[in-house]
Amino acid sequence: MIKNTSTPNLRITVYCALFTALIIVGGYISIPIPIGPVPIALADFFVMLAGLFLGFKYGLISTTLYLVLGAIGLPVFAGGTAGLAVLFGPTGGFLFGYLFMVAFIGFISDKMKPAIPTYLLSLIVGNILLYSIGVPWLRIVMHFNWAEAFAVGFVPFIAGIVIKIAVAVTLSHKLLPPFKRTHAFSSMQQIDGGDE
After folding, report:
1. pLDDT tens, 171-194?
2. 28-38, pLDDT tens digit by residue?
3. Which domain holds residue 55?
4. Cα angle vertex 16, ends 12, 19, to 5°?
5. Which residues, given as ranges, of the chain have pLDDT below 50?
6. Distance, CA of 196 to CA of 77 (rounded, Å)
7. How far apart are CA 27 and CA 77, in angstroms?
């Protein structure tokens, strides 16, 4: 019998679109910082969740879609901005850094069992990757020295990083195990359906 893959495919498509929408909403929830061009925003929080819940492949798809929408001119970036000028401007390193963040978090989420140490490891390293790209990019584009780049592109966000990681870990601890069990059950149904 031919496997019925339409329902799982539709489901993951909906999840990818949902997380793209959440990242967009997170971008709109932003607070400009007077000392620099990088705002405080929630987009990175939803990128973290995309990696945890969707895994490497689909988290990357969801985040890439967000960047593509912004690049073609839809106002999805922080504060409702858009376009290649934003993508390659002072905050562009953080936008491209989302891809490295979600890829690492998704990879760990795919390979390791759901557990608080797993979430912490993936989120901490994911944020290190994000700022390792965003801060040097900001330094180059804005012609900052390293002290200025860290003062503008990292220090104001430390408290937010800690809070976002704590909330993401809490949500994942409660929701991720049943979410993954549901997907495993869906896969089993698909396999069973093909054996009938």
Report:
1. 999 999 988 888 654 443 343 444
2. 998 998 888 99
3. 6-195
4. 135
5. 1-4, 185-196
6. 48
7. 6
In a domain, 143, yes or no: yes
Contacts of 185 (CB under 8 A, 6+ apart): none
- Number of separate domains in the chain: 1
pLDDT of residue 196: 37
DSSP 3-state assignment of 77? Answer: strand
Q: Which of 86, 158, 78, 125 is nearest to 150 (CA)?
A: 158
Rounded to the nearest 10 degrees, what angle do helices 43-71 and 158-195 cross at?
70
Domain at 87, CATH number? 1.10.1760.20
Prediction pTM value: 0.88
Alpha carbons 179 and 151: distance in angstroms, whole number: 39
Retrieve residue 79's tokens: 């504060």
Nearest to 142 by CA among 76, 150, 28: 150
The CA distances from residue 74 to 32, 43, 108, 160, 194, in Å, are 20, 16, 31, 27, 41
Q: How far apart are the first and last CA of the chain?
A: 6
Percent with pLDDT over 70 in the chain: 89
For 178, counting Cβ atoms within 10 Å of its Cβ (0-12 exposed, 13-18 middle, 19+ buried), the class is exposed
Does 127 fall in a domain? yes
In a domain, 1, yes or no: no
In this prediction, residue 6 carries a pLDDT of: 59
Assigned domain for 92 exists:
yes
